[in-house]
Amino acid sequence: MISRSHHAAEPTAEVWGQRADLAESAIVSRHLRRLWATPGTELGVVGWPATRRERGFASWHYWWQAHLIECAIDAATRAPTPARKRRIAALARSHRLRNITGWTNNYYDDMAWLALSLERAERTQGITEVRGGLIALERELVTGWNAQIGALPWRKASDYYNAPANGPAAIALARFGHHDRAADLADWLDKTLRDPESGLILDGIHLPGGEIERPVFSYCQGVVLGLETELAVHTGDFGHIERVRRLLHAVEDRMTERGIVTGGGGGDGGLFNGILVRYLALVALMLPGAEADQVTARRHAAGIVKASATAAWDHRLQVEGEPLFGHDWARPARLPTGRSGAGSFTAGGSVTASRTPERDMSVQLSGWMLMEAAHLVTAAGF
Q1: Angle CA(375)–CA(366)–CA(103) in degrees, nearest 5?
Q2: How many helices and strands (H and E) does the chain possess?
Q3: Among the listed residues 370, 227, 242, 216, the one whose alpha carbon sits nearest the alpha carbon of residue 302
C-alpha cells in the first residue's frame, strides 16, 4: 500500500525519533542483505528494487556503505539496542570482506568517510574489532598528504586536490588527534577553494597547473562546516567560528529556499544533501560561543535541518508502512517502477543516478540522516 501523509504540528524530539526509526526500518527491509550468503555479514544493496547484479554485490560502492555504517551508529546512539550494535559490527566486517583488499583503497575521499564511521563505531559503541581498520586508514590519511601542496589528492597519483577528499580527511585527522594537520587543511580549503563571490566552497583544483573545477556541491559545504566547528571546539580560535558563520550564511543564501536545502540528485549525488545536514546539526550542537552572532548561527543551522526534515517527511511516499524519501526534499517522492534504469559507474569512478533517483540507497540514506539530524537538534532544544 502506498500513500502520502502531512503533519501540521511542530514535531517533538520523540516524533523525530519515531520517524528516524521508520527510516532505519525502511533501509533494513529494502536494502540490507547478507554478503554472498555468508553468516554474520550484512551490507547495503544499492538499489531498490534491486537488479541481480546489485543483489550479488557485483559492483562496489565503498563510500555509500561507509555512510550506511554512520547512519546505523546514529540510530544506536539515539536509542541503543544489542541488535543495533551487532548490525554496526556486521556492516563494518562485511565492508572489509567485500572490499577484497582489506580496509583501504586508492581513493582518499572513500577512506576518509570510512575512517569517520569506524572511529565513531569504536568511540561511541565500543566496537573494538575495527581497530585494525582505523590504524590502516589513519596511516593512509597521514602519509597521503602532499607537503609541497598542503593537501591530499582525490586519489593516489592524481593531480586533483578537492574538498570531497580534504574535508572529511581533515575531520578524521582531527578526531585522530592530528589537530595541526587538520587546521592546515582547513586553511588550505579556505584559501584555495572558497569562492570569494559566493562564499561557497568549490569542488577542487588541479595542481601544479592551477585549473579550478568550479561546481558547487552541498556536501563540500557540509564537510567544511563540520571541520571548522571541530577546530573551533578544540582550539577556541575565533577565526574558525567566523568561517563557520560566513559559510553558513552563504549556504542559507544560495542553497536553501524557505529554509529547505534545495535540489538533490541520485547516484553519488544522493548523499550530498544528507551530508550537509549531518554537519549542520553538528554546527547547531557544537559551535562554541555565547555572543549573539554565535547563538544565531546555531539556531539557523538547526532551522535548516528542521525545515528540510519537515519537507522531506511531508513529501515522502509510504510504501508498506515505511517511508520512501524523495531525492529533492521539497518535491513529492516518486516510486521506482521495476529494476530498469539502474545507475552505473562513469569513467571517472563516480556513480550516476538511477532513472528514478529514489531507487538509489544513497537517496534513502540521506533521508535517514536527515531524520536523525532533526531528532538531534530538536532534542537539544531547537
Answers
A1: 110
A2: 13, 10
A3: 370
What is d(CA 327, CA 244) in angstroms, rounded to the nearest whole number? 26
Q: What is the CA radius of gyration of the chain?
A: 19
CA dist 345 → 9, 246, 266, 350, 352 (Å) = 42, 35, 13, 6, 6
Phi first, then psi: give them for residue 232, nearest 5 degrees.
-60, -40
Question: What are the cell numbers at 1?
Answer: 500500500
pLDDT category, 8, cuts 50, 70, 90? low
Between helix 361-379 and helix 62-78 the angle, nearest 10°, is 30
Concatenate the DSSP letters of all residues of 192-224 into one string.
Answer: HTB-TTT-PBPSEEETTTTEEE----HHHHHHH
Hey, what amino acid is at 5?
S
Torsion angles phi and psi, residue 317, rounded to 5 = -100, 150
Q: Whose grid coordinates read 575512517?
A: 115
88 band by pLDDT with thresholds 50, 70 and 90: very high
pLDDT at position 342: 79
For residue 35, the one-letter residue type is L
Neighbouring C-beta atoms of residue 320, cutoff 10 Å? 10
State the pTM of this model: 0.96
Integer Cα distance of 53 and 50 in angstroms? 8
Q: Which long-range contacts (CB under 8 A, 24 or more apart) does 185-188 make?
A: 185/150, 185/151, 185/152, 185/227, 186/224, 186/227, 186/228, 186/231, 186/240, 186/243, 188/150, 188/151
- Helix (H) / strand (E) element for 317: namely strand 317-319
The residue with cell 560561543 is 289
Residues 6+ apart with CB under 8 A from 239: none
Q: What's the longest Cα–Cα distance across the chain? A: 58
Domains present along the chain, CATH in parentheses: 11-334+351-379 (1.50.10.20)
Cβ atoms of 225 and 275 closer than 8 Å: no
Give the total residue count for the chain. 382
Residues 264 and 335: their CA atoms lie apart, in Å, by 16
3-state DSSP call for residue 293? helix
Please state the φ and ψ torsions of residue 156, each to the nearest 5 degrees.
-60, 140
Measure the CA–CA gap between 306 and 10, rounded to whole angstroms.
10
Helix (H) / strand (E) containing 2: strand 2-3
